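Preliminary data (for renewal application), NAP complex.
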Amino acid sequence: MADLSGKAIIVTGASRGIGAATAFELAQSGASVILAARTDSEIKHNAQQIRNHGGEAEAVMCDVSKYKDVQALISHCESTFGRLDGLINNAGVIEPIGHLATSDPETWGHATDINFKGVYHGMRAALPIMMAQHHGTIVNVSSGAAHSPLEGWSHYCAAKAGAHMLTLCAHKEAATSGVNVVGLSPGTVATEMQVLIKASGINPVSQMDTADHIDAEWPAKTITWLCSGGAAEYAGQEVSLRDETIRKQVGLAQD
Ligand code: NAP
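Predicted structure:
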């Protein structure tokens, strides 16, 4: 099992789904965790659950589309735990789902502010600290949509492709300072996001059988593995949970 004792790690989008599972997994491995999202009650509940199981956790309300919120989040981690070892840029939205030709420019743009600029905001706030201390891990949660166009998801595909490029650029700038920046494409995961996708019926992903999605525990374990050394091997790359080699390295069951 990974040992992250003494490490302080922030997870965005930790109110549910992959982010919540990741916060639990990181805390189980000994990390002090900050859970961030917009829904205060959910992150507070998850943090309390972690503490009930003997872990160390704090909840910080944060909208990643707002740079001031993200700055405050990073500062809170430093002032509470006296350090910042990891940042998991996981927060994301799939809505509004719909064709580009009929999209509403405002909601389309706001989704991009979360899925793309949110990743930039996290790295912009965390990198100066990590580079100065000569260590740190940043995991940007990516998607197959970063590399394959899908109907009805123009903002999501474009934002995930952009975030993937941010991972590569940040790696070029930060690797020599001892910071590992890595992407994780989780495959399809049984979360609320997939419920919305299925209800839309708009593209082949929405036609998938729910039973074909993996459990959120898989990306959570993979992120924990990346934070405990795996990211050094794959820095500047995107790790995919569809890749058998990665699954084996993480110790996940084979299909
Ligand atoms: P989810 O269950 O819908 O959870 C999304 C999380 O993001 C929630 O905690 C949500 O919390 C948070 N969030 C949304 N907007 C936010 C904002 N502006 N600021 C802060 N937090 C925000 O989805 P999920 O499946 O766990 O997705 C997690 C990540 O995995 C996303 O980046 C997604 O694109 C990626 N991903 C998912 C799949 C999949 O099949 N599920 C596949 C590939 C990639 P609040 O609403 O409380 O803010």
